[in-house]
Design a protein that fits this description.
Elements: E1 5-10, H1 21-30, E2 34-38, H2 40-49, H3 54-63, E3 65-66, H4 82-90, E4 95-97, E5 110-111, E6 114-117, H5 119-123, H6 126-132
Helix pairs in contact: 1-3
Amino acid sequence: MKAVLDTCILKLASLPNPNNTSALIVKLSWEGLLQCWASPAMLEEYSVVLAEEPELLALVQNRFQVCYPLVALDCVKHEPDNRFVECALAVEADYLLTVNTARGHFDKSAYGRTRVLTPGAFLNLPDVQRLIARI
């Protein structure tokens, strides 16, 4: 098994407490076990969503690698969600992790080679379970 799992894009809808699934994914990134990416537009959204969680926001800003997508997409009905797909395709991410799988959001199972999973489904993958055991 690789020391670092494949690349991920994490769509943070909210982080009400540090023990939820998205927070655990951020912790995997912090530990260097998961490579997460964000574009400047995504980081701007995180600054709003995580305004009440300054430590977690700092962690995301410091640990997520920044990409600069060159293509603007219009493949997701909820227009701001296109920024996450753009980033995922730009870095050839293996996973786009989101709780927003409702119609009009990330309602496809994949965008290109990037699989769309909920954070809970991602954390249940066998390779991810082995990474969790290491922290």
